[in-house]
Amino acid sequence: xGAKIPESVLVVVHTDDLQVLLLERADHPGYWQSVTGSRxxxxxxxxxxxxxxxxxxxxxxxxxxxxxxxxxLLRLLPEEIAEDLALSPSDGVARLNEKRRLFAKFNHPDxxxxxxxxxATIRMTIANLMIDEALRRLDA
Length: 140
Prior knowledge:
Layout: E1 8-11, E2 23-24, E3 32-33, E4 35-38, H1 46-57, H2 78-85, H3 93-107, H4 117-139
Antiparallel strand pairs: 1-4, 2-3
Helix pairs in contact: 2-4, 3-4
């Protein structure tokens, strides 16, 4: 191996909101640095050196897996949702509110992948209507 070329690059990798990638030094745990490296050849463009150093020092991107819709989000019929809620004439206010919270824990649109939010919204809407109706019956 030849002598190291004394021309280096320091690459700052950042997100749009300016979070900066730092690498922990293997030879000095607890010490962090940006991506750095030296040119491989005197005629190597600095931009290429930067690309090569980033590829060398960072793991390859992990491809995102296609999300799989949970089975319960496919249950959109009122009868299916009623079965999931397990409403009972003996449910009081506290129990109905508990069932609403528990249902929302697994079905709220904010808690599911964006591809499944329409189904979650349908389920939450129907469940809330059913629980609201059960609460009205208690007041009657």
